[in-house]
Records
---
Amino acid sequence: MNATIDLLSSHRSVRKFKNKPIDDNLFHTIVRAAQCAATSNHVQAYTIIRVQDKEKRRQIADLSGPQLWVEQAPIFLVFCADLTRLESACDRHKLTAQTGWAEQFVVATVDTALVAQNLMVAAESLGLGGVFIGGIRNDPETICELLNIPDTAYPVFGMCLGYPDQTPAIKPRLPLDLVLRDDSFFGRESKKDRADSLDTYDQTCKDYYLNRDSNLKDQTWSLQMANFMDKVSRPHMKSFLEKKGFFLK
């Protein structure tokens, strides 16, 4: 197709890295490219923390799983949704920041996700690889204490980056007819068509899990998702976000 489509289509999570540092100039180039992501109303409501302190890395690795690659990766980043700069802008112009609204939470979180995805793509285009770390939300209060994250900012996820020392198989994605609809949420396909499509995808994922290089399992996508949705995940997040000044009204 073209180099951009090929790059996006070849994304995979990398958790094992070569013992090779990433040059600061290269890293800064990647971050500047990431900043060109779309942003609502130009708010750029994010802050990226590069965690270099070894003890902080060790603690974050433990809190996240443990996930040893957090400690081992050449670069580990924490992406924060951040309204503090917007509050400072209000202070500068003697206006009152109307914080605490759900919309601001959505805007800041989406902005953070967009810049992070841009950063990953930019890194991959230069021969790097990485993995997102949602596990930092296992104990976000401790993460905030470790990294001095203030109110009206919160850690959304982490990211490991480095030169890949593995080439994992690419996970198959859902077929288009299950994610792309015309004119209506339910589209034009029948329930049977969608069920048949999911059956086919389930078998594709089962084959993938049975034949990949590590962590083999006999499981379909729908069973994996059913098990995921059948349990409460991180119930502390609502009270944590309210404490940080998000999602209050």
Note: Residues 180 and 186 are 10 Å apart (CA to CA).
---
Amino acid sequence: MSDTVSHDHEVDVLKPVELSGEIPRHVAIIMDGNGRWAKAQKKLRIIGHRRGVETVREVVKACRELKIEVLTLFAFSSENWRRPAKEVSLLMDLFFTALDREVKRLHRNNIQLRIIGDHSAFPERIQKRIIKAQVLTANNDGMILNVAANYGGKWDIIQAAQKLAAKAARGEIEAESISDKMISAELSMSELPDPDLFIRTGGEERISNFLIWQLAYTELYFTDTLWPAFDRGEFNKALSSFSGRQRRFGHTGEQIEKLRNA
């Protein structure tokens, strides 16, 4: 991906850094390693996923205390349907339970929950609970928690392109006028700042079809720590790594300093 950025975009891409100082406004996480953690503990894979929910709870708490504005978690990708049917079924049950139990906790803490992705593939009972959870927390004005479920970055771009194609077909826009800002406006989380920091646990160093448009200028952090073992100390390591980086967006270090001091 290119590191270049137009002059018109300078203020937009620098704004998260200027507002947040050493703390990112938006953190996105691929929570990898639940199954491997369970295997190492000689436990069933679903035990690893349940332990992973506990880690989510702690990371949400840490973000709220640090006043991180947005946390986006990759819970279930569009590719995860390929897993063994029994595991998928157990994951659906866990998701259903968490949407009830954890959402109540989120609501008490003034956290707004948003589920991004293609909900239509989920069983009806889960679709109804997603709607109920989002309605319950819709007016909360604290931190925003995005949970990506049946989400894929390619799917996100395709659905945005389809919306723009429909507008062009209706004569509302000219195809030649489509810009990156117009595409961004049709994506999931369009009204939120793009992630400043991306974290992937579990040792893999790829983004795996997660927010592939929104991560264009994001700082990437990879750790071998498996998600169930990702504690406050590990989270602090990621934040410390972020705070020590200079985000240049194609500029020189000197240019960035001048823009910040302007």
Note: DSSP finds nine helices and six strands in the chain.
